[in-house]
Each structure stands twice: as structure tokens, then as C-alpha cells.
Design a protein that fits this description.
Layout lengths: L3 E7 L5 H11 L2 E5 H7 L3 E5 L4 E4 L1 H18 L4 E5 L13 E6 L2 H10 L4 H13 L1 H8 L5 E6 L5 H14 L13 H7 L3 H4 L2
Parallel strand pairs: 1-5, 1-6, 2-5, 6-7
Antiparallel strand pairs: 3-4
The structure holds adenosine-5'-triphosphate (ATP) and magnesium ion.
Magnesium ion binds next to helix 1.
């Protein structure tokens, strides 16, 4: 059987790497940790000091991703190929079977990122992106594929999510609870008058 391809996107700190590692312990998975691949193989242009991040060279990265997927599918060694990273939506649509966006409540995400000692500006930008649902929009713009899911990791129930993912992949059927559009931090913060705290 040819491996299914799953991309896991989401704002930094939502749990992409952790979830990927959990899933790979349950099902035979080839994992691409995109941030590592970008740095190790130098798919970078320059370092953006203000944003504390590398600018990615899509011209070399996208063909490399296509090549990896092709090779690992052909090898028939794996049931699943996961590409995890907030840039995983660079994988061409037709190669994707499942798209997952991990979400996390802004208060919790802020504290997760503070623990990483990120600069204030970087934390603010990432939390704002999460509130606005940027990663969901990017995935929606791609007009993919079979199954796109939005999964809340605020409560760190990663074990349960990993089990669900295995079941979704084995049965090739999404779960209603992970359907897109159920998560709206913007609405919640606005209703509770907390929006200003994040957009001063
Ligand atoms: N071993 C662990 N046990 C329990 N929770 C963990 C563990 N590792 C990570 N987490 C939780 O998952 C959160 C996010 O971790 P992770 O590094 O997977 O995020 P990420 O989405 O990959 O971020 P980035 O885009 O920066 O790589 C952590 O802040 C923590 O709350
Ligand atoms: Mg990560």
C-alpha cells in the first residue's frame, strides 16, 4: 500500500513536532521535520533578525519535498508520511491526503512561547497570527484535498489526538469533532473584551 501524506501546520508552539513524534510511535511513519530539513539542507535565503527566523528558499524546498514524498511512497516502507511545520502548506495540493492545523488558545500559547524565551515581539506576532487563524487561511486558500482538520491542543491531550489520527488514517475517514471552522479565538476574545490585550 502506498503511504498517505499528511501535512501538520499550525502556529509555533501548537504542538506539531510533539504530535508528529507521538503518531510515529503508533503507525509506521516517515517524518519530515520541516524546520530541521530547511536548516540542514540550507533551503534558506537570509536570516530575518527582527523576526528571528530564516527566510525560506521555496525554489529549492518545494522540489525537494516532492522528491522525498515520491521516494518514500515508492519504497512502500511506510503507511504514513508526515510533513510537519508551519510551512508544510508548501507541499503541492495533489500530493496531500490529509491537512491538519493545530490550534491553541492565545493565553496558553503565549505562556508556551514565553517558556521558550522568545522575544516579546516574536511572541506577540505569533499569538496574533493564532488569533486571526492565519494557518487555517493558508490551508483553506490551497483548496485541498480529501480531509482538512482543525485540532485544539490547548489541553495538551496529545495522546488522544494521536490515537484519533491513527484511526482516521486507517479508516480513511475524518472525525466530525475536528471539522474546520469550530475554533474562533477572535470571536471569543472580542465577546469577553480581551482582544485589546493582544493587539495593543
Ligand atoms: N514531552 C512533552 N510532554 C507534554 N507536552 C509537551 C511535550 N513536548 C511538547 N509539549 C507541549 O507541546 C507544546 C508545543 O510543542 P512543539 O515543540 O511540538 O510545538 P511546534 O508546533 O512544533 O512548534 P514549532 O513550530 O516552534 O516547532 C509545548 O509547549 C508543550 O506544551
Ligand atoms: Mg516544532
Amino acid at each position: 500500500m502506498k503511504a498517505k501524506v499528511c501535512i501538520i501546520s499550525g502556529t509555533p508552539g501548537t504542538g506539531k513536532t510533539f504530535l508528529t513524534k507521538l503518531i510515529s510511535r503508533k503507525i509506521n511513519t516517515f517524518c519530515v521535520f520541516l524546520n530541521e530539513l530547511i536548516i540542514n539542507e540550507k533551503h534558506t535565503l537570509n536570516y530575518d533578525n527582527a523576526r528571528e527566523t530564516w527566510v525560506v528558499n521555496e525554489k529549492t524546498l518545494i522540489p525537494r519535498l516532492k522528491e522525498i514524498i515520491k521516494l518514500e511512497k515508492r519504497s512502500k516502507n511506510y503507511e504514513l508520511i508526515i510533513i510537519e511545520g508551519h510551512l508544510s502548506d508548501l507541499v503541492p495540493n495533489k500530493l496531500i491526503d490529509y491537512g491538519i492545523v493545530l490550534r491553541c488558545h492565545p493565553n496558553v500559547l503565549k505562556s508556551r512561547l514565553e517558556k521558550r524565551n522568545y522575544k516579546e515581539r516574536k511572541i506577540k506576532e505569533n499569538v496574533q497570527a493564532e488569533i486571526l487563524g492565519d494557518c487555517v487561511s493558508f490551508l483553506l486558500e490551497k483548496k485541498i484535498i480529501k480531509t482538512v482538520m482543525e485540532i485544539d491542543t490547548t489541553n495538551e491531550n496529545f495522546e488522544e489526538i494521536a490515537e484519533d489520527m491513527v484511526s482516521i488514517i486507517k479508516n480513511d475517514k475524518g472525525f466530525e469533532k475536528y471539522a474546520l471552522g469550530k475554533i474562533d479565538w477572535l470571536e471569543e476574545l472580542f465577546t469577553n473584551n480581551h482582544l485589546d490585550e493582544f493587539f495593543e
